Amino acid sequence: MSSAGPASGCDAPPVGVDGILRERGQREVFCGLTGIIWLHRKIQDAFFLVVGSRTCAHLLQSAAGVMVFAEPRFGTAIIEEKDLAGLADANEELDRVVNRLLARRPDIKLLFLVGSCPSEVIKLDLSRAAQRLNSRFLPNVRVLNYSGSGIETTFTQGEDACLSALVPDLAFSSEKQLMIVGSLPDIVEDQLTRLLGDLGIGKVVSLPARKAGQMPGVGPNTKYLLAQPFLAETGTALDKRGAEHLPALFPFGAEGTTAWLHAAAQAFGVPEARFEQVIAGPRERARKGLALYREKLAGKRIFFMPDSQLEVPLARFLAGELGMELVEVGTPYLHKGHLIDELAALPPGTMISEGQDVDKQLDRVRAARPDLTVCGLGLANPLEKEGLSTKWAIELVFSPIHGYEQAGDLAELFSRPLHRRDLLRV
Amino acid sequence: MQLTVWTYEGPPHVGAMRVATGMRDLHYVLHAPQGDTYADLLFTMIERRDHRPPVTYTTFQARDLGKDTAELFKTAARDAYDRFQPQAMIVGSSCTAELIQDDPHGLSLTMGLPCPVIPLELPSYSRKENWGASETFYQIVRTLADKERKPLPAVGENGPRRPRANLLGPTALGFRHRDDVAEITRLLGDLGIDVNLVAPMGSSPADIAGIGEADFNICLYPEIAAQACSWLERTFRQKTVKTVPIGLLATREFVSEVCAVAGLPVPTDLDQGRMGWWSRSIDSTYLTGKRVFIFGDGTHAVAAARVASEELGFKVVGLGCYNREFAREVRAAAEKYGVEPLISDDYLAVEEAIEAAAPELVLGTQMERHIAKRLRLPCAVISAPVHVQDFPARHSPQMGFEGANVLFDTWVHPLVMGLEEHLLTMFREDFEFSDAAGPSHLGGHASSAPAAAASTAEPAGEVATIEQSAPATTEIGGWTSEALAELGKIPFFVRGKARRNTERYASEHGVTTITRDTLYEAKSHYAR
Questions:
Q1: Closest approach of chain B CAs to the CA of A168, in angstroms?
Q2: 3-state secondary structure of A156
Q3: Which residue from B28, B58, B52, B49 is spatially nearest to B119, judged by alpha carbons?
Q4: pTM of the complete model
Q5: Which residues from B are below 8 Å from A26, CB to CB?
Q6: pLDDT tens digits, one per residue of A235-269
Q7: What is the fold of B12-127?
Q8: Predicted ipTM?
């Protein structure tokens, strides 16, 4: 199990941009368990069993928009007094819960045991539990484990932990292939795969796949593109399997998507003329889509509270392609390796903050009075009440925003609060 | 370990947050990791609160665990005092901090904070949200109530004064607490009674100090206020009004009890709303004997059972609660209605019980609303846990005479209406009356696809297929295809009951093959 992985890279001096503000105080962010909300839909035959407390279960149901699905593919094994007091053997209890669960859900092929704050603190060894359960349930069900605990992971880091748990389990493949890494909405994944195919890149695979049995192989002839900026551990795990990372801007907006595809085109020896020919149409559509919102957003001042780690690439997109002014770009962690191109593409002197001291940061929001503040759900209504327009950060994780065809939609997400403010007379 | 899909209650510190967020000038310092800050959104999103809950989380991380998490707590507490200047603070641990045993209470004592600090011991691995709210409110009252402050003399310089009551129990994120308080305050005003204090909702620590100045207490939400009320009874000799005024009859009894405690005559000219007449009016005849399944917190469930049974003429076919602390009250009520009480916080067990009872209406929480949707049963929400829809823009109390009006509307409207019910029964094969169409006045539900999982309400299509492809002698689960086809002609909202009754009749009478005749024999056997 990883221990506070991304934190280890924080001490190095900033690359490309100076004056990064690092804060240690109260953080107002989700823990990594929250990633289960989209991951359990992405991998259709996987189940996520959180081993945690009533708080974990309550978080999942609150973050899931309160019970949208009749029976989701996630659940919580709630640790009780007797498990802590040693009256019951926690491992036996866990086996009992897993037995009951798998008996109820014979359709499940992949089970993640997900560690939480309490399970980490009482040092319940879920990797050993997974081994033990594998010896009983393989080949029908594969059991893996990762930690989504709030003492180790922030929000989207939960997906990173989940995917990096998948990597050692991937089959070896010596085939020449391109891997898209990061869970994308199915339609976006299909669009990007199609474009890469049109470029003449033979085999394009995705991690995660939509089914447990269809996870891609990996090996020295695998080159991978990260679709999300929060996959530090997953990248490291893929590197260990011999795969090669293709550094690029992230595929947000017309320019970001072009740069992302271009990195793949270069690595696979696609001629420039072919590249231009394939992307010209969709890139033009994306630019047209963006033009609609540029007028509304250009010159508007935006403040990012730290949330999903999407902040830096989105800020680059909003400043570069829509002319917005960046007041502050807050991010829970700054992975300078994966963000090197993004940081370089930000306007010089952009104020970046890493970590959080929420009350102090809110003081800065109030002092700056930005036109738009991107923040978590706990802060949005209070800021609106103070007359500050907000954009829920979580929507950026739940909506299709990558690639050419979604560039306009992404801009619309930022323009909607401003449009609504202009519209309302109440 | 308990396997949970959905939970009815959050952890106990969320109960404490509901108390703190309902109050003013109180601050909660919670020793907790960063993920626990999700709880803020319950208040800002579900209840649309326009301020952050008054909670500071220490948000310790893995790397802090080896170092000094206690120091982190002290820094957070000091910063919170300096920034928010509360009149009092509550301090405690969430589930994870409970395991690292930093003792927020002891730490805060050594800090010499310039306001009262109330320590909370909320055991996360054995208790839940309501218990946490109750314990928090009790500790706040116990610590802050000024024992020197007593009611003013009943007769002062200007003659006799109006009696004064405390309204206790409403919190942030409570089911209709906002509207109940407004309604009961108005009702008390009509009776000639002043409200001394509403708490926790809307009160400050300074207000709590004067809690003893009321002549008596009204325990609106026993889940949260019963413990505090009993302490006040012992300490200040304040009587407690215990009738929960949900429903017409309960509200009348509440008025009598309040007047008796306050030493006032019961007025004869109170406006009692329309609910009584609406229910007696001839249009409501079709409500008679509607089978209703009720589940919620103990207080709301018991109250709903009485309203359903005595005020609307429904038949209670299931009754239960998720909070074990009120199991005794629910068991007593269940005995009265002749049903097996369901005391469980296992959502799947509740779903099974509803499916087995095959009710025509479900009164429950947001969980039961989802279950009912899946089983294609009408449903109204009567209890927490809450959802954004449980905070309507309009005034919509559950308590008092207006509350009774609201109950009538919200419980009756989801049902198929009287005349439509007859037509559905008579012209079952009319293509536009197909099951998928649902009640015509609920347009939004009309196109909803039949839920495949619902065994009590299988789609008509399945029955039709059987009818066409199989000879009349084929047996499926003991049913001949002919009998199954006949069953399919019964409107969906009573089909579950018909199937269940027929199968029970068959097994009790040793019938192995259910024919069309068996169906009608069972019908006459169980005729109501």
A1: 24
A2: coil
A3: B28
A4: 0.89
A5: 37, 56-59, 76
A6: 999 999 999 999 999 999 999 999 999 999 999 99
A7: Rossmann fold (3.40.50)
A8: 0.91
